[in-house]
Amino acid sequence: EIVMTQTPATLSVSPGERATLSCRASQSVKSNLAWYQHKPGRAPRLLMYGVSLRASGIPARFSGNGSGTDFTLTISSLQSEDFAVYYCQQYDDWPPLTFGGGTKVDIK
Amino acid sequence: VQLVESGGGKVQPGGSLRLSCEASGFTFENYEMNWVRQAPGKGLEWVSYISGSGNTRYYADSVRGRFTISRDNAKNSLFLQLSSLRAEDTAVYYCARDFDTLEYWGQGTLVTVSS
Lengths: 108, 115
Fold this sequence. Notes:
The complex is a heterodimer. Chain A is mainly beta. Chain A is 0% helix and 49% strand. In chain B, 0% of the residues lie in helices and 50% in strands. In chain B, a hairpin with a 6-residue loop joins strand 5 and strand 6 (57-59). At the A-B interface, strand 4, strand 5, strand 9 and strand 10 of A face strand 5 of B.
């Protein structure tokens, strides 16, 4: 099973600032990496797939980078609606699909 | 696309529950489906997968032998039968569409396993 590790667990950022979230896989997942945004009481929302491809309707301030085992999600200028928990997920070798433990982005 | 889960509730350890997910806005039989759960204060955990025809099914190790995924394409519905429930199965259960990247999710249904 591929283990996904996200850092940091919590990221405190001011609105308008840049946020960079990290995700590491226990073995190469090539470019088979997705990111999700999750707010309390809401359905998770697919942000990125194939590392750097934005899902439908996702604004350009979200970008993804990396390959193999190390990946980042960058939010270039945080908006109020971006404060949430973010998860990475690999789909290179499954079952099982595996998610990282999440990074909570909160207001500084 | 809309996915609406139902069937959650409180159940005693060792009990059973059947979750449903009603799909609309797409041709249900053409899409693979998954169940994903989130325990209180924890992250997302993939639970189970089923192919469009229902012929292929996968389970997480933590639920294999206790949970059964199924679907009724004529009724645009996905199911998860939960048996031999444990306290650690307490979670919000989401159905999600697609094979590997989960583009559409329902709002979830809460399952609480407690005496």
